[in-house]
Each structure stands twice: as C-alpha cells, then as structure tokens.
C-alpha cells in the first residue's frame, strides 16, 4: 500500500526518474558534461573506469544520468546500461576528426540494440572552444544522422568547460520526456 501510494505521488508530483546515459569515446568530455550539469562548474577529471551516476533536476523533472567510461576495453559493456534508458547523450570531441567514423559505428550499433528502441538521442558537439573544431553540421553529416528514422535525435554544440550549450541540452531533454 505504501509502495503504491509512493508511486502515485511520484506520478502526481512529477517525481519519476528518467534514465539517461552519457556515451562516447574516451576523452570526449562525458564526465566533464555530467559535473557541469550538476554543479555548473568544470571539474578535474581522470578517465572513467566503470561509471558515475548523478541525479539532475530540471524544472521538477528528475533525470538519473549515467556517465559510462569510453575507453575501447569498456565499450563492449555499454549495452549493460541500456535497459530502461529514455535518452542517450552521445558526446563527441569535435576536434577528434580521426575517430569520428568510429563514433559513427558505435552510434549506429547502439541504435540497433533492442533495449534502446524507445530512446531519443542527443548528440553533443563538445569542445567548441577549441580551434579547428568541427561544426555541428559537419558532425551530423559524418555521423549520417539524416539516415536515422527510428529514433528522435537532436544535435547541440557545447563547451563542457564553460557550460555553454548545456542549459539548452537540458531544456531539450526535459521537453522530450514531458512530451512522451
Ligand atoms: N577544451 C575543452 N576541453 C574539454 C571540454 N570538455 C572536456 N574537456 C577536457 O577533455 C578531457 C577529457 O574529459 P573527460 O570528461 O574526462 O572525458 P570522458 O569522455 O569522460 O573520458 P572517459 O572517462 O575516458 O571516457 C579533460 O581534460 C577535460 O578537461 C571542452 O568543452 N573543451
Ligand atoms: Mg569519464
């Protein structure tokens, strides 16, 4: 009875937690994004082994955000975080031209996974502060986003060090889950 009441209160007062995963190659800036979401500051990071998880609240909407290590040896276990995910945030290092094809392969492999069939995808074109960084349009083209018809997707330019572009990302996420 207590459990049912808690669940009903969660629905009425908007306490439901929406699961989000942060994926992308190592050094893309996932952990920096997570803590910029949380504290509005740039934190010092080291490569993530395993994952970090934090709750982020946007206008009474609660997100449980999982930041997953992107090193090659860890990518094979990304799928174990997919279940019940509503939003996939793919963080791209916009200066890493050499590995964009690899990012594209990882993205399309993820979208084919049955546990992500209902998920929306937010692509963060990170490190826009760096000289020579690719534009969101270039990244969209290289990732062949126009070919994705199975999932709702959105591209956002950002700089996780300053936080520029991240409030807009959170707004998009909030609007998405409220619309569903
Ligand atoms: N110039 C610049 N550097 C950034 C930005 N975002 C992150 N970085 C730097 O990029 C490096 C890697 O950032 P992390 O957040 O640790 O990267 P990660 O994607 O979590 O990496 P893994 O945990 O290994 O998968 C750090 O030195 C960050 O300070 C950005 O927008 N601009
Ligand atoms: Mg990390």
TrEMBL record:
The keyword Magnesium applies. InterPro entries: Small_GTP-bd (IPR005225), Small_GTPase_ARF (IPR024156), Small_GTPase_ARF/SAR (IPR006689). It comes from the Eukaryota. Mg(2+) binds at residues 31, 48. GTP binds at residues 24-31, 70, 126-129. One of its GO terms (molecular function) is GTPase activity. The keyword Iron does not apply. Keywords: GTP-binding, Magnesium, Metal-binding, Nucleotide-binding. Pfam families: Arf (PF00025). NCBIfam families: small_GTP (TIGR00231). This is ADP-ribosylation factor 5B. It comes from Solea senegalensis.
């Amino acid at each position: 009875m207590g459990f049912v009441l808690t669940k009903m209160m969660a629905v009425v007062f908007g306490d439901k937690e929406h699961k989000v995963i942060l994926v992308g190659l190592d050094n893309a800036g996932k952990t920096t994004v997570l803590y910029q979401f949380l504290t509005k500051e740039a934190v010092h990071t080291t490569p993530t082994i395993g994952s970090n998880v934090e709750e982020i609240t946007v206008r009474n909407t609660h997100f449980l955000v999982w930041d997953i290590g992107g090193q090659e040896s860890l990518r094979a276990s990304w799928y174990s975080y997919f279940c019940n995910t509503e939003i996939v945030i793919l963080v791209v290092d916009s200066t890493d031209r050499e590995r964009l094809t690899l990012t594209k392969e990882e993205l399309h492999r993820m979208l084919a996974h049955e546990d992500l069939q209902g998920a929306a995808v937010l692509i963060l074109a990170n490190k826009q502060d760096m000289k020579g960084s690719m534009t969101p349009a270039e990244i969209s083209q290289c990732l062949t986003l126009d070919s994705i018809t199975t999932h709702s997707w959105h591209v956002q330019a950002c700089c996780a060090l300053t936080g520029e572009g991240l409030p807009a990302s959170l707004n998009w996420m909030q609007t998405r889950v409220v619309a569903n």
